[in-house]
Protein backbone atom coordinates (compact mmCIF):
# COMPACT_ATOMS: atom_id res chain seq x y z
CA UNK A 1 0.00 0.00 0.00
CA UNK A 2 2.72 2.38 0.94
CA UNK A 3 4.43 1.77 -2.38
CA UNK A 4 1.20 2.46 -4.28
CA UNK A 5 0.55 5.57 -2.19
CA UNK A 6 4.01 6.94 -2.88
CA UNK A 7 3.65 6.22 -6.59
CA UNK A 8 0.30 7.98 -6.61
CA UNK A 9 1.74 11.02 -4.90
CA UNK A 10 4.68 11.13 -7.28
CA UNK A 11 2.31 10.98 -10.25
CA UNK A 12 0.21 13.83 -8.84
CA UNK A 13 3.39 15.86 -8.36
CA UNK A 14 4.50 15.18 -11.93
CA UNK A 15 1.09 16.18 -13.28
CA UNK A 16 1.18 19.36 -11.21
CA UNK A 17 4.62 20.28 -12.54
CA UNK A 18 3.49 19.59 -16.09
CA UNK A 19 0.51 21.91 -15.66
CA UNK A 20 2.72 24.62 -14.17
CA UNK A 21 5.14 24.22 -17.07
CA UNK A 22 2.31 24.44 -19.58
CA UNK A 23 0.93 27.60 -17.98
CA UNK A 24 4.39 29.14 -17.87
CA UNK A 25 4.90 28.23 -21.51
CA UNK A 26 1.62 29.85 -22.48
CA UNK A 27 2.51 32.95 -20.49
CA UNK A 28 5.88 33.13 -22.21
CA UNK A 29 4.26 32.65 -25.60
CA UNK A 30 1.74 35.39 -24.84
CA UNK A 31 4.54 37.62 -23.62
CA UNK A 32 6.51 37.00 -26.82
CA UNK A 33 3.48 37.74 -28.96
CA UNK A 34 2.79 40.90 -26.99
CA UNK A 35 6.39 42.09 -27.37
CA UNK A 36 6.17 41.56 -31.12
CA UNK A 37 2.82 43.33 -31.24
CA UNK A 38 3.74 46.26 -29.03
CA UNK A 39 7.25 46.89 -30.42
CA UNK A 40 6.70 50.39 -31.78
CA UNK A 41 4.07 50.10 -34.48
CA UNK A 42 4.00 46.34 -33.95
CA UNK A 43 4.42 45.72 -37.67
CA UNK A 44 6.31 42.61 -38.69
CA UNK A 45 8.43 43.06 -41.81
CA UNK A 46 9.84 40.28 -43.94
CA UNK A 47 13.26 41.27 -45.21
CA UNK A 48 15.22 39.38 -47.84
CA UNK A 49 18.82 39.80 -46.72
CA UNK A 50 21.83 39.83 -49.03
CA UNK A 51 22.06 36.03 -48.96
CA UNK A 52 18.47 35.73 -50.16
CA UNK A 53 17.22 34.56 -46.77
CA UNK A 54 13.74 35.76 -45.84
CA UNK A 55 13.63 36.89 -42.21
CA UNK A 56 10.58 38.14 -40.33
CA UNK A 57 11.44 40.98 -37.95
CA UNK A 58 9.18 42.84 -35.55
CA UNK A 59 9.73 46.57 -36.04
CA UNK A 60 11.09 48.87 -35.00
CA UNK A 61 14.08 46.89 -33.77
CA UNK A 62 14.66 47.71 -30.11
CA UNK A 63 17.72 45.56 -29.39
CA UNK A 64 20.47 44.55 -31.81
CA UNK A 65 23.91 42.97 -31.78
CA UNK A 66 26.05 44.27 -34.68
CA UNK A 67 29.08 42.06 -35.39
CA UNK A 68 32.13 44.20 -36.10
CA UNK A 69 32.50 47.97 -36.02
CA UNK A 70 31.32 48.45 -39.62
CA UNK A 71 27.93 47.16 -38.53
CA UNK A 72 27.91 49.24 -35.34
CA UNK A 73 28.72 52.41 -37.29
CA UNK A 74 25.91 51.69 -39.70
CA UNK A 75 23.38 51.24 -36.89
CA UNK A 76 24.55 54.43 -35.20
CA UNK A 77 24.44 56.38 -38.47
CA UNK A 78 20.76 55.44 -38.63
CA UNK A 79 20.25 57.13 -35.28
CA UNK A 80 19.75 53.79 -33.55
CA UNK A 81 22.82 53.61 -31.30
CA UNK A 82 20.59 53.14 -28.28
CA UNK A 83 19.36 49.81 -29.67
CA UNK A 84 22.82 48.20 -29.50
CA UNK A 85 22.86 45.77 -26.57
CA UNK A 86 26.32 44.19 -26.95
CA UNK A 87 29.55 44.85 -28.85
CA UNK A 88 32.64 42.94 -29.96
CA UNK A 89 36.22 43.91 -29.16
CA UNK A 90 36.49 46.25 -32.17
CA UNK A 91 33.79 48.51 -30.70
CA UNK A 92 34.63 48.31 -26.99
CA UNK A 93 36.19 51.72 -26.18
CA UNK A 94 38.24 50.16 -23.36
CA UNK A 95 40.09 48.03 -25.92
CA UNK A 96 40.52 50.69 -28.61
CA UNK A 97 42.69 53.56 -27.35
CA UNK A 98 42.24 55.56 -30.56
CA UNK A 99 38.45 55.20 -30.37
CA UNK A 100 37.76 55.95 -26.71
CA UNK A 101 35.94 59.14 -27.64
CA UNK A 102 34.43 57.78 -30.84
CA UNK A 103 32.82 54.73 -29.23
CA UNK A 104 31.95 56.37 -25.92
CA UNK A 105 28.26 55.64 -26.62
CA UNK A 106 28.99 51.96 -26.06
CA UNK A 107 30.92 52.28 -22.82
CA UNK A 108 29.80 49.61 -20.36
CA UNK A 109 27.96 47.40 -22.85
CA UNK A 110 28.68 43.66 -22.70
CA UNK A 111 31.77 42.72 -24.72
CA UNK A 112 31.16 39.40 -26.48
CA UNK A 113 34.80 38.98 -27.48
CA UNK A 114 36.27 38.46 -30.93
CA UNK A 115 33.78 39.00 -33.73
CA UNK A 116 34.67 35.73 -35.47
CA UNK A 117 34.10 33.63 -32.34
CA UNK A 118 31.78 35.66 -30.12
CA UNK A 119 30.36 34.54 -26.81
CA UNK A 120 26.91 33.53 -28.01
CA UNK A 121 25.55 33.25 -24.48
CA UNK A 122 26.54 36.87 -23.84
CA UNK A 123 24.64 37.96 -26.95
CA UNK A 124 21.55 36.09 -25.77
CA UNK A 125 21.89 37.52 -22.26
CA UNK A 126 22.17 41.06 -23.66
CA UNK A 127 18.53 40.91 -24.74
CA UNK A 128 19.25 41.30 -28.44
CA UNK A 129 16.29 40.73 -30.76
CA UNK A 130 18.34 40.81 -33.95
CA UNK A 131 21.94 40.00 -34.89
CA UNK A 132 23.14 42.13 -37.82
CA UNK A 133 25.86 40.02 -39.42
CA UNK A 134 28.33 40.17 -42.32
CA UNK A 135 28.44 37.58 -45.08
CA UNK A 136 32.07 36.86 -44.17
CA UNK A 137 31.20 36.61 -40.49
CA UNK A 138 29.97 33.58 -38.51
CA UNK A 139 26.37 33.95 -39.63
CA UNK A 140 25.75 30.20 -39.99
CA UNK A 141 26.81 29.66 -36.40
CA UNK A 142 24.70 32.63 -35.36
CA UNK A 143 21.61 30.97 -36.81
CA UNK A 144 22.31 27.79 -34.83
CA UNK A 145 23.15 29.57 -31.57
CA UNK A 146 20.75 32.52 -31.57
CA UNK A 147 17.58 31.66 -33.43
CA UNK A 148 16.48 29.03 -30.85
CA UNK A 149 16.25 31.98 -28.44
CA UNK A 150 14.13 34.01 -30.85
CA UNK A 151 17.00 36.22 -32.02
CA UNK A 152 16.68 36.87 -35.74
CA UNK A 153 19.82 36.80 -37.89
CA UNK A 154 19.95 39.34 -40.72
CA UNK A 155 22.96 39.39 -43.06
CA UNK A 156 23.81 42.84 -44.45
CA UNK A 157 27.53 43.46 -44.95
CA UNK A 158 28.42 46.96 -43.78
CA UNK A 159 31.85 47.05 -45.43
CA UNK A 160 30.43 46.37 -48.91
CA UNK A 161 29.47 49.62 -50.72
CA UNK A 162 26.99 47.98 -53.10
CA UNK A 163 25.25 46.06 -50.32
CA UNK A 164 25.25 49.05 -47.97
CA UNK A 165 23.50 51.30 -50.47
CA UNK A 166 21.03 48.64 -51.55
CA UNK A 167 19.87 47.88 -48.02
CA UNK A 168 19.70 51.39 -46.56
CA UNK A 169 15.93 51.73 -47.22
CA UNK A 170 15.22 48.35 -45.62
CA UNK A 171 17.42 49.11 -42.63
CA UNK A 172 15.58 52.39 -42.19
CA UNK A 173 12.32 50.46 -42.09
CA UNK A 174 13.62 47.87 -39.65
CA UNK A 175 14.81 50.48 -37.16
CA UNK A 176 12.00 52.94 -37.79
CA UNK A 177 14.58 55.46 -39.02
CA UNK A 178 13.49 56.11 -42.60
CA UNK A 179 14.60 59.76 -42.64
CA UNK A 180 18.07 58.96 -41.30
CA UNK A 181 18.39 56.14 -43.83
CA UNK A 182 17.47 58.55 -46.62
CA UNK A 183 20.06 61.05 -45.37
CA UNK A 184 22.70 58.33 -45.55
CA UNK A 185 21.51 57.29 -49.00
CA UNK A 186 21.77 60.92 -50.14
CA UNK A 187 25.36 61.12 -48.85
CA UNK A 188 26.20 57.87 -50.60
CA UNK A 189 24.61 59.05 -53.85
CA UNK A 190 26.32 62.45 -53.68
CA UNK A 191 29.70 60.72 -53.46
CA UNK A 192 28.75 58.27 -56.19
CA UNK A 193 27.58 61.09 -58.44
CA UNK A 194 30.84 62.98 -57.98
CA UNK A 195 32.86 59.87 -58.81
CA UNK A 196 30.91 59.13 -61.97
CA UNK A 197 30.98 62.73 -63.17
CA UNK A 198 34.69 63.29 -62.59
CA UNK A 199 35.86 59.88 -63.83
CA UNK A 200 33.80 59.85 -67.01
CA UNK A 201 36.19 59.16 -69.87
CA UNK A 202 39.25 59.16 -67.59
CA UNK A 203 41.76 56.34 -68.08
CA UNK A 204 42.32 54.07 -65.10
CA UNK A 205 45.65 54.14 -63.32
CA UNK A 206 47.12 50.91 -61.98
CA UNK A 207 47.14 50.54 -58.20
CA UNK A 208 48.73 48.22 -55.68
CA UNK A 209 46.74 48.04 -52.46
CA UNK A 210 48.50 46.80 -49.34
CA UNK A 211 46.35 45.78 -46.41
CA UNK A 212 47.95 46.32 -43.00
CA UNK A 213 51.04 44.16 -43.59
CA UNK A 214 53.90 43.83 -46.07
CA UNK A 215 52.91 42.13 -49.34
CA UNK A 216 49.34 41.45 -48.21
CA UNK A 217 46.80 42.72 -50.73
CA UNK A 218 43.05 42.47 -51.34
CA UNK A 219 41.39 41.03 -54.43
CA UNK A 220 38.05 40.90 -56.20
CA UNK A 221 35.23 40.10 -53.80
CA UNK A 222 36.44 42.48 -51.10
CA UNK A 223 35.34 46.03 -50.39
CA UNK A 224 38.98 47.10 -50.69
CA UNK A 225 39.06 46.00 -54.32
CA UNK A 226 35.72 47.70 -55.00
CA UNK A 227 37.02 50.99 -53.61
CA UNK A 228 40.00 50.87 -55.98
CA UNK A 229 37.80 50.26 -59.01
CA UNK A 230 35.21 52.88 -58.02
CA UNK A 231 38.07 55.30 -57.47
CA UNK A 232 39.20 55.04 -61.08
CA UNK A 233 42.08 52.60 -60.68
CA UNK A 234 42.77 49.05 -61.79
CA UNK A 235 43.87 46.69 -59.03
CA UNK A 236 47.10 45.08 -60.28
CA UNK A 237 45.93 41.86 -58.61
CA UNK A 238 42.36 42.18 -59.81
CA UNK A 239 42.78 39.00 -61.85
CA UNK A 240 43.23 36.87 -58.72
CA UNK A 241 40.17 34.79 -57.81
CA UNK A 242 39.40 33.75 -54.24
CA UNK A 243 36.41 32.72 -52.15
CA UNK A 244 34.48 35.94 -51.48
CA UNK A 245 32.95 34.46 -48.32
CA UNK A 246 36.38 33.87 -46.78
CA UNK A 247 39.12 36.11 -45.44
CA UNK A 248 41.30 35.32 -48.47
CA UNK A 249 39.84 38.12 -50.58
CA UNK A 250 40.76 40.68 -47.91
CA UNK A 251 44.17 39.31 -46.93
CA UNK A 252 45.93 37.74 -49.91
CA UNK A 253 49.69 37.28 -49.78
CA UNK A 254 51.61 38.14 -52.96
CA UNK A 255 55.20 37.82 -54.12
CA UNK A 256 57.04 41.17 -53.83
CA UNK A 257 58.80 40.42 -57.11
CA UNK A 258 55.37 40.10 -58.74
CA UNK A 259 54.47 43.57 -57.46
CA UNK A 260 57.57 44.99 -59.10
CA UNK A 261 56.74 43.19 -62.33
CA UNK A 262 53.19 44.53 -62.41
CA UNK A 263 54.57 48.04 -61.85
CA UNK A 264 51.70 50.00 -60.24
CA UNK A 265 51.44 53.73 -60.84
CA UNK A 266 49.90 54.25 -57.37
CA UNK A 267 50.59 52.45 -54.08
CA UNK A 268 47.94 52.65 -51.37
CA UNK A 269 48.78 51.22 -47.95
CA UNK A 270 46.36 50.64 -45.09
CA UNK A 271 47.80 51.25 -41.64
CA UNK A 272 50.91 52.07 -39.67
CA UNK A 273 52.93 49.23 -38.14
CA UNK A 274 52.02 48.71 -34.49
CA UNK A 275 49.13 51.19 -34.51
CA UNK A 276 45.36 50.71 -34.51
CA UNK A 277 43.13 52.85 -36.68
CA UNK A 278 40.62 55.16 -35.08
CA UNK A 279 39.06 58.57 -34.65
CA UNK A 280 42.22 59.75 -32.87
CA UNK A 281 44.68 60.19 -35.77
CA UNK A 282 48.27 59.03 -35.84
CA UNK A 283 51.09 61.54 -35.97
CA UNK A 284 52.25 62.83 -39.34
CA UNK A 285 55.70 61.37 -38.68
CA UNK A 286 54.29 57.89 -38.05
CA UNK A 287 52.57 57.88 -41.42
CA UNK A 288 55.59 59.44 -43.15
CA UNK A 289 57.87 56.75 -41.73
CA UNK A 290 55.55 54.03 -43.01
CA UNK A 291 55.64 55.58 -46.49
CA UNK A 292 59.44 55.75 -46.38
CA UNK A 293 59.64 52.05 -45.47
CA UNK A 294 57.54 51.16 -48.48
CA UNK A 295 59.56 53.30 -50.86
CA UNK A 296 62.81 51.89 -49.49
CA UNK A 297 62.05 48.23 -50.15
CA UNK A 298 64.65 46.35 -52.14
CA UNK A 299 64.11 46.70 -55.88
CA UNK A 300 61.10 48.97 -55.54
CA UNK A 301 62.88 52.06 -56.83
CA UNK A 302 62.01 50.92 -60.35
CA UNK A 303 58.26 50.98 -59.64
CA UNK A 304 56.48 53.94 -61.24
CA UNK A 305 54.60 54.81 -58.04
CA UNK A 306 57.84 55.07 -56.09
CA UNK A 307 59.56 57.15 -58.77
CA UNK A 308 56.65 59.62 -58.92
CA UNK A 309 56.11 59.54 -55.13
CA UNK A 310 52.54 58.32 -55.56
CA UNK A 311 52.51 56.37 -52.29
CA UNK A 312 49.67 56.95 -49.84
CA UNK A 313 49.39 55.67 -46.28
CA UNK A 314 45.96 55.94 -44.73
CA UNK A 315 44.05 55.40 -41.50
CA UNK A 316 41.18 53.00 -42.08
CA UNK A 317 38.94 55.00 -39.76
CA UNK A 318 37.98 57.32 -42.59
CA UNK A 319 38.65 55.03 -45.56
CA UNK A 320 36.09 52.37 -44.66
CA UNK A 321 33.32 54.75 -43.65
CA UNK A 322 29.93 54.21 -45.31
CA UNK A 323 30.82 50.89 -46.89
CA UNK A 324 34.23 52.19 -48.03
CA UNK A 325 32.57 54.86 -50.15
CA UNK A 326 34.97 57.38 -48.63
CA UNK A 327 37.82 55.09 -49.60
CA UNK A 328 36.68 55.19 -53.23
CA UNK A 329 36.51 58.98 -53.15
CA UNK A 330 39.96 59.22 -51.58
CA UNK A 331 41.46 56.84 -54.15
CA UNK A 332 39.98 58.97 -56.93
CA UNK A 333 41.42 62.16 -55.48
CA UNK A 334 44.86 60.57 -55.02
CA UNK A 335 44.99 58.83 -58.39
CA UNK A 336 43.39 61.64 -60.41
CA UNK A 337 44.37 64.89 -58.66
CA UNK A 338 43.59 67.12 -61.64
CA UNK A 339 40.04 65.86 -62.09
CA UNK A 340 39.34 66.05 -58.35
CA UNK A 341 41.19 69.27 -57.55
CA UNK A 342 37.95 71.04 -56.63
CA UNK A 343 36.56 68.16 -54.56
CA UNK A 344 36.80 68.74 -50.81
CA UNK A 345 36.69 65.41 -48.95
CA UNK A 346 35.74 67.20 -45.74
CA UNK A 347 32.40 68.40 -47.12
CA UNK A 348 31.35 64.76 -47.30
CA UNK A 349 33.19 63.46 -44.25
CA UNK A 350 31.68 66.10 -41.98
CA UNK A 351 28.23 64.74 -42.83
CA UNK A 352 29.33 61.22 -41.95
CA UNK A 353 30.83 62.22 -38.60
CA UNK A 354 27.68 64.19 -37.80
CA UNK A 355 25.71 60.96 -38.27
CA UNK A 356 28.03 59.37 -35.73
CA UNK A 357 27.44 62.15 -33.23
CA UNK A 358 31.08 63.26 -32.96
CA UNK A 359 32.98 66.44 -33.73
CA UNK A 360 34.28 66.82 -37.30
CA UNK A 361 37.93 66.16 -38.14
CA UNK A 362 39.66 66.91 -41.41
CA UNK A 363 40.35 63.94 -43.67
CA UNK A 364 43.88 65.29 -44.09
CA UNK A 365 44.63 64.02 -40.57
CA UNK A 366 44.05 60.46 -41.73
CA UNK A 367 46.41 60.01 -44.67
CA UNK A 368 49.88 60.96 -45.87
CA UNK A 369 51.44 61.22 -49.31
CA UNK A 370 55.05 60.14 -49.61
CA UNK A 371 57.37 63.13 -49.88
CA UNK A 372 60.66 61.40 -50.58
From TrEMBL:
Q: Which residues form the Fe/B12 periplasmic-binding domain?
A: 63-343
Q: Which SUPFAM superfamilies match?
A: Helical backbone' metal receptor
A Pfam family annotated for this chain is Peripla_BP_2
The UniProt entry, under InterPro entries, shows: ABC_Transporter_SBP, ABC_transptr_periplasmic_BD
Q: Which PROSITE patterns match?
A: FE_B12_PBP, PROKAR_LIPOPROTEIN
The domain of life is Bacteria
Q: Which protein family is named in the record?
A: Belongs to the bacterial solute-binding protein 8 family.
Give the PANTHER family listed for this entry. Answer: PERIPLASMIC BINDING PROTEIN, VITAMIN B12-BINDING PROTEIN
Q: What is this protein called?
A: Ferrichrome/ferrioxamine B periplasmic transporter
Amino acid sequence: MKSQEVSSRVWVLIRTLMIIGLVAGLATACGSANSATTAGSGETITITDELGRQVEVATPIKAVYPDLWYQAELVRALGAADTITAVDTTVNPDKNPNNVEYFADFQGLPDVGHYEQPNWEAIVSSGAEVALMRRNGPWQEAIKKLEPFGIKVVVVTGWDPVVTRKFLPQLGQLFGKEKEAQDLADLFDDIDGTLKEKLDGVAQRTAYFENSADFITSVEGSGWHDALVEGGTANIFGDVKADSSSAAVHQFEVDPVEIIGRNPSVIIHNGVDGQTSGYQPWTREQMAEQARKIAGRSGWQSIDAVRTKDIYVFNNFFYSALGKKFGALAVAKWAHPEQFADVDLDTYFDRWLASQGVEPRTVGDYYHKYEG
